[in-house]
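Input record (one chain):
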Amino acid sequence: MSIRYKYDAGGQLQIGQPAPDFDLPGVDGKNYKLADLKGNMKALAIIFWCNHCPYVIKSENKIISTYHDYQNRETQFILISANDAVAYPQDSFENMKKRAVSKEYPFPYLYNEDQTVAKAYGAQVTPHVFLFDEELVLRYRGAIDNNINMENIRTIHYFRAALDRILSPDDESIQDKKTDPKGCSIKWK
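The corresponding structure, as predicted from the sequence alone:
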């Protein structure tokens, strides 16, 4: 039986929907399946990512820092690149491996060569966060924060706030369930 997912008018997976399945290769030589993750954490962040996008590059240290701040709180982060590597060779699987090593990624970085997973989630840009609870139900999607350019403005940490709500024993609803992701468009084939 296949699941019929619901999407908003912009084509993104709706809040409250289950995580679409995947089985993708990681830069570490392992394959990762969504089914293997269920029951092993309280929050799962799936972040569509790539190597070349200036928005991703500006967000790398934020994501690594966020991961380290939450790693002992039963969370898992998965980065997925779905960009067309023929048109954007910087985003090839080999270059993904190099990037993960050079930046010491502490989380899996997966390659979605046929782009089916990105389409199933309705990913639009890089970076684009999809945050699921322990039942793998979408609770937040959108931007990491409002300050992608590291400008001298008050930063609103959407992703961290959503993580805190999911991990809270008094879990109230997430205030900003969805925000507009800012970044480079996914490079479709």
